[in-house]
Design a protein that fits this description.
The protein has 169 residues and is mainly alpha-helical. 76% of the residues lie in helices and 0% in strands. The chain has a single domain, classed as Ferritin. The structure holds MU-OXO-diiron.
Length: 169
Amino acid sequence: MINEKVAKLVNEQVNKEFYSAYLYLDFANYFEDEGLDGFANWYFIQAQEEMDHALKMRKYLIDNGLHVQLDAIAKPNKVFKNHTEVLEAGLEHERYVTSLINAIYDAAFDAREYKSMQFLDWFVKEQVEEEKNAEDLLKKMAIFSKDSKGLYSLNQELKGRTFTPSANE
Ligand code: FEO
């Protein structure tokens, strides 16, 4: 069994990770419309990572004998004026997710539930990487998007991002 509050928060986080996938898929769609297929690929891979996070949490609940309640996924509703705004929204979203993971960790800590703390350690570490990836992308954008040649090169680089399921990391 898992502490009731922790289980509730992890189940809610399953939905929020699926929402993250939906959000990043929306970002990918934006870049497809803009003709920037490398940026679209980067966010498509990001969406796959988010689904991986959701499924990892689903498995944790199931492995502990719990039913996983799936809820409606909210509609992404962001409207962007330029490419950089998308990247900024991504970083802002990752910082929000970090706060959610920390809140679950707080609940596990309060309940002295060591197995949940250990489970959440992976996500704490992952959020460091998620924020860094979003920050690095913004930095590259600031450097390379000053002219169309630089933007083209960055777009080419982002085509190379691939998905690695977390179980293989
Ligand atoms: Fe599931 Fe981007 O954190």
